[in-house]
Design goal:
- The chain has 362 residues and is an alpha/beta fold.
- 43% of the residues lie in helices and 13% in strands.
- The chain contains 17 helices and twelve strands.
- The strands form two sheets. Strands 1-2-6-5-4-3-7-8-9 form a nine-stranded mixed sheet, sandwiched between helices. A three-stranded antiparallel sheet has the order 10-12-11.
- Helix 8 packs parallel to helix 9, helix 11 packs across helix 12 and helix 16 crosses helix 17.
- The termini are far apart.
């Protein structure tokens, strides 16, 4: 583990080059102890790549990161280990080390990623909700990036339907971005968790989001783009998935809808299946329901609400969609209390959030 971390820390050596070096030498430790002139014999390995390989600071920094991993009960998985995600193993640029927290179990047949714009529309939210509700009987794992908009919509609905969901982060496991989503962490980790190939010391860099996208695409059997403008990170994820020969789905929209241009282009360029109904996913991927289904859990017809939740529920029922500030004002409650209560009600399935800090009864 120590020498794998040290190799991962070397500038100019990415996952592809690291795997080439390990393949030649046999192990990360052997790479760091090999003579430079021998490594230069490897095709594609030059002076620039090896210029910082033998600096002592890599092992010293690896010792610190290893201590952080141990202190925080983080699981680090080597790319040659039997428990490394199977689908990711087939991706040439998959990380040599993958860090995770929570209760992730990727040994399931159906794994999909759901991505899209951070400026998701009401229609996008509704489609994402319907998609996950429709796919629930197939018990898929939901992968996304824990960002604003489409990502967090997918995670929250996976929680609601008790589906395992995995958040791939663009930073180390010592932080959460955006911070406002920290309130969902415990629910994700109860049935899923967080993945990253970034260190706790890695600086926060927006380019990391593009690097993170290869893991989202690589873990998944298929990537679903719910909404996207003409340019965006979700289109990068779709392109990566396409390069991995994975299925890509895109939800079509009207030509005048700015948040559908990216999806429409994917379909037009024949890089994605047109996803007009959620049932297109199991049909195209040839998913079959298990003959021996799990015992059905009867949904509650009447969800039990505490007194505070009843006040907010009755207010929303009488006044339709309302903003958070107005709910707090008219229910005579502080905003922080209303916000926390609405989250609990959302997880119970009795209210749903809408763009613009609006909430409504389901």
């Amino acid at each position: 583990m120590l020498y794998t971390l040290a190799l991962q820390h070397v500038p100019n050596i990415g996952a592809i080059t690291a795997k080439k070096l390990i393949g030649f030498c046999g192990s990360p430790e052997a790479v760091l102890k090999e003579k430079k002139q021998n490594l230069l014999k490897i095709d594609g390995i030059g002076e620039f790549i090896l210029s910082q390989l033998f600096q002592k600071n890599h092992v010293l920094e690896a010792e610190k990161e290893l201590q952080f991993i141990e202190d925080n009960n983080i699981k680090a998985t080597y790319f040659k280990a039997s428990n490394y995600p199977e689908k990711l193993k087939h991706c040439i640029d998959a990380p040599i080390l993958l860090f995770q927290t929570g209760a992730i179990d990727l040994n399931k047949k159906h794994i999909i990623s759901i991505v899209g714009t951070r400026k998701i529309t009401t229609n996008g939210i509704a489609f994402c909700e319907k998609l996950i509700a429709t796919l629930e009987p197939y018990n898929p794992i939901i992968i996304s990036g824990f960002a604003y908009g489409t990502d967090i919509t997918a995670h929250k609905n996976a929680i609601k339907h008790n589906l395992q969901n995995v958040a791939c982060l663009a930073h180390g496991l010592n932080q959460i971005y955006p911070k406002v989503h920290k309130k969902y962490m415990a629910a994700v980790e109860r049935n899923g968790g967080f993945l990253s190939d970034f260190w706790s010391t890695d600086p926060f860099d927006r380019n990391n989001f593009l690097k993170r996208n290869r893991i989202i695409a690589g873990l998944s059997e298929a990537t679903i783009v719910v909404e996207s403008a003409e340019k965006g990170g979700s289109l990068v994820t779709a392109d990566i998935a396409h390069s991995y020969n994975r299925d890509v789905f895109a939800v079509p929209g009207r030509p005048t809808d700015t948040q559908s241009i990216g999806c429409n282009n994917l379909i037009k360029q024949q890089k994605a299946h047109m996803l007009s109904t959620p049932l297109d996913v199991p049909y195209i991927l040839n998913w079959q329901l298990e003959d021996k289904e799990k015992p059905a859990i009867q949904k509650q017809l009447f969800v039990e609400l505490d007194p505070t939740e009843k006040i907010i529920y009755n207010y929303l029922k009488d006044n339709n969609k309302q903003q958070l500030d107005l709910i707090a004002l008219n229910c005579n409650m502080p905003i922080f209390k209303v916000s926390g209560t609405l989250l609990n009600m959302e997880l119970k399935g009795v209210v749903r959030p809408l763009p613009g800090k609006l909430f409504e009864v389901v």
